[in-house]
Every structure is written in structure tokens, then in C-alpha cells.
Design brief:
Layout: H1 4-8, H2 21-37, H3 51-65, H4 71-83, H5 90-106
């Protein structure tokens, strides 16, 4: 593996000064010319999202399009929990959890 000094070769370090912008451009151009002479090409960065990330992004977009929540229903449930009348239907909860998992796997 080449060291940093070997990669630089005769390349001068790029510096930025507070002088005119022409001087800064000249220094940058010189650095680019040295890189071209040495056969070093710039590379474009690329990003690739996994299928799972794409699914999550799609769900986020779908959720953003839906209304956030029904505040009246939330208040009703809060009151039911506070007075002890709220009951959880375990079978219904389990079925909804399974449906959610299946939806995730199908998307």
C-alpha cells in the first residue's frame, strides 16, 4: 500500500488565501493539473439503499400522507384507561400484529 507521500508525489498542497478569488482559483487549477498529470481521476460518490431501507422509506411516505391521529379517539381511550374500563382483546391484538408482520414481508 502506498503511503500518503508517495500518492502526493510532486503535488503541491492546496491552500486558500484571503487574497483575490483569482489567486485561489489558480491554486486549485494547479492542483487539478498535477492530479491529471499523475493519472488520478476524480470519482463520483454513489449510494445504494437496501430493499429493507426502500420499504421503510415507502412506509414513511405513506404514513406522511395519512392523517396523524384522531385526537377525539385518543382522548376517549385515555379516559377509559384512567377509569379502568379499557380492555385489551388479546386475540385481536395478536391478529393485528401478525397482519402487520405479513405486510412488512410482502412489501
Amino acid at each position: 500500500m502506498a503511503s500518503i507521500d508517495q500518492l502526493r508525489g510532486n503535488q503541491q498542497a492546496l491552500t486558500t488565501t484571503r487574497n483575490t478569488s483569482n489567486q485561489t482559483k489558480t491554486q486549485e487549477t494547479q492542483g487539478g493539473a498535477v492530479r491529471e498529470q499523475q493519472g488520478v481521476k476524480s470519482q463520483d460518490d454513489a449510494v445504494s439503499l437496501s430493499q429493507q431501507s426502500q420499504k421503510i422509506d415507502k412506509m414513511n411516505q405513506e404514513m406522511a400522507a395519512e392523517p396523524h391521529f384522531d385526537s377525539a379517539k385518543v382522548e376517549q381511550i385515555k379516559q377509559a384507561i384512567a377509569n379502568g374500563s379499557y380492555r385489551v382483546d388479546a386475540d385481536k391484538l395478536a391478529a393485528n400484529m401478525m397482519r402487520f408482520e405479513n405486510d412488512l414481508n410482502e412489501s
